[in-house]
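FAQ
Q: What does a multi-component entry look like?
A: The components come first, one per line:
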Amino acid sequence: MEGGIPRAVAEELDAADPLAAFRKRFVITDPELVYLDGNSLGRLPAATSDLLREVVEKGWGGGLVRSWQEWIDWGARLGDRLAAHVLGARPGEVVISDSTSVNLYKLAGAALDAARGRNTVLMDAEDFPTNRYVLQGLADQRGLRLRRLPSDLDGGLDLDVLRSALDRDVALVVLSLVSYRSGALLDMAKVNELARAAGARVLWDLSHAAGAVPVDLAAAGAELAVGCTYKYLNGGPGSPAFLYVRSDLHAVLRQPVWGWYGQREQFRMGPDYDPVPGIERFLVSTPPLLSLAAIDPALALVEEAGVDRIRTKGLLLGRLADDLAAAWLTPLGFRSASPGTPEQRGSHVSLHHPDAWRICQTLAGEAKVVCDYRVPDRLRIGLSPLYTRFTDVWDALARLREVTAGRTYASRPADLARVT
Ligand SMILES: Cc1ncc(COP(=O)(O)O)c(C=O)c1O
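Then the predicted structure of the entire assembly, as C-alpha cells:
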C-alpha cells in the first residue's frame, strides 16, 4: 500500500538532485539508518577526521604552544567565511566563539547596557528554552521588564502581536528566525523594520536557519545575531557558536564578560580592560581549538553547495514530507505541527501525535529512523539537504506509518529519557 505516492517518485527526485553527490562526503556507517536529525546534530563530514588528526598530531603534538601563532585567528577567519557564504554579512562582522547561549548573553547584555532609559525586553514565549532563561536572568539582574509575546506553537509569532508590543520602553527584541519546535520562519527584514521604527534593537537566534535557509543580514538590516554551528553547518557536537554584530555598532556596544581575548594588545597583559575596536571585542577566552577546527571542513561543504541550492532542495524535501504525511499519517492520528508550506518554514517539519514519544523511541530502535521528540507530543523531522535523500524521506515516513498503524510502540516507556 503506497497511498498514491510510489517510491519511484522519490527515486526520480534523487536522480535529478544536483546536490546528490554531497552525501558521499559524509561518514555513513549504517546505510539502513535514516537520519532525520541534522537540525539537532549534523552528520560527520568525511574530511573532518583527517583534518582533526592533522591538527592534533602536527599542531598540538608537533607545534605545541607555538601553534597558537596560527590558531589565534581561526575564530575570526571562519567567521569571515560564514559571513560571506552563509549569513550575508561583511568581513569583520562575524566571529566564532563560545556557545549560542553565552553569545546570546553577551550580545543581549551589550544591547541592554547601551539602551539606557528603556526597560523592556520582548521575547517569543515559545522560543528555545536557553534563550528564555538567559533573558530571564538578564532582566532579573538588571530590574528590567521581560514581556513574553504569545505565539502559536505550530504557526509561530504573529507580527501584529509584536507590532502592538513595540512601545517606547522596548530596548531589545530577541527572536529565533526559525522556530526550534515548529520550524516557523519569520520575516527578518520586516521584524527589523518594525523594531527600528520603535527605536528597539533585534537580536536574532539563527541556530535553525544557518546553512538551511538563505540569510542576508546586511540586506535585512540586522544588527545582532547568534547561532549554532553543529546543526545544518555540521561542525560537530558542541562546536562553538557564531556571533554577528553590525560594524557600526562595534564602537557603541560593550559586552558584559570582559575576557582577555577582547583586549587590545592582549599579550601586553595590561592592567585594565580596554577592548579592541573590532568584532574580537565580543570574544572572551581561549577557544576550544579542536572543535573550532572541525568547523572548517564542514563549512567548506556548505560553501561548495551554496545555501541557495541547499534551500531549493530543502523545499522539495519538505513538500514530499508534507504530501506523504497527508496521505499516510493524518489517517493515523497525526496532524501537522508546522506552518503549512515549506516556504513558511526552515528545514524541519513537526508532526503531532498523542503517542509521539513512544513512536519516536520505536522509530530509532527497530525501525532505524532517527528523528527527535519535542514536548508536547511532537516528532521533529529534520531535512538536511546535503545528505538527506528523497528516498530517505519516503522510507522514513513509510516506516513511521508502519510503526504507528501496528502500534508496535505500545510497550515503550512513556517517561521521557534524559535526552529526547
Ligand atoms: C534555537 C536554539 N538556540 C540555542 C540553542 C542552544 O545552544 P547551546 O546549547 O549551544 O548554547 C539551541 C540548541 O538546540 C537552539 O535550538
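Q: Is there any commentary attached?
A: Sometimes. For this entry: The two ends are 31 Å apart (CA to CA).
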